[in-house]
Amino acid sequence: MRTFIHLLYLVISLFILTNCSIEQHIHFNKDFSGTVNYKIDVSTMNLLSNLDSTQEKTSWRNDSLFNFDTEMARLGQIPGISDLEFIDDSLNDIISFSYNFDNLDALNSSLANSNLTSAKDIGGTVFKKKGKTLTYVVNDIETTDTSGDVLSMMEYYKYKLILSFENEIKKVDNMDAHVSDDKHSLFIETNFADLYRKNVILGMNIKLD
Q: Would 140 be classed as within a structural domain?
């Protein structure tokens, strides 16, 4: 799960001592092109901003902590990445960021070069395909501080992974994954403390129709 320690650092830097949730949704077409979408709950940050009357509210798009313009410029240079879009729906306490990928190589490269999540620590490969099986490779989270206070804080940082497919899901070897009734998507919902403790596992093999 080492890939997701980058998400953890992002969350801690943005919402220290506050609640936060990140939803990562990756959709795969039959040819394994697809779309990546992140949704981030900014309700707490909006509340804190409203309480500080001296702080001028700026767009999340160019915020010094998020800076999605820089993120989009970086990912837009990767071959096979297109249609990058940022949506600031902060009135409803949600910001989202999405892009399309042409194939698994483009997807893995985007994850390796994104500030939202990085696969550099596992050689730039997150998704591997062999036959009709898609393998999601996630290494363990590593942290230098495993004190009770840190782990308690990590419990407030919620994370939801959604993987959806044009093909039907035949089998998943992860007991933490919940497959939809129509067999075209699955999700894992957890927090970063449980990921660190290995109470929840993200890696899996997914057999498709």
A: yes
Residues 95-132: tens digit of each pLDDT: 888 999 999 999 998 888 776 654 444 444 589 999 99
Residue 104 lies in a domain: yes
What percentage of the chain's residues is helix, strand, coil (to nearest 5)? 30, 35, 35
Its sign, for the CA torsion 98, 99, 101, 104, is negative
Do 93 and 42 touch, CB atoms closer than 8 A?
Answer: yes
CB atoms within 10 A of CB 63: 17
d(CA 69, CA 50): 24
Structural contact between residues 60 and 42, judged by C-beta atoms closer than 8 angstroms? yes
Judged by phi (left if over 0) then psi (alpha if -120 to 50, else beta), residue 93 lies in left
Among 5-9, 24-28, 195-199, 204-208, whose mean pLDDT is lowest? 5-9
Q: Could you give the number of structural domains in the chain? A: 1
Position with higher pLDDT, 193 vs 13:
193
Detail the DSSP E strand segments found in the chain: 20-28, 34-41, 81-89, 94-101, 127-130, 133-136, 157-165, 169-172, 178-179, 185-191, 204-208
In sequence order, the β-bridge partners of residue 205 are: 135
pLDDT interval class at 154 (50, 70, 90): low
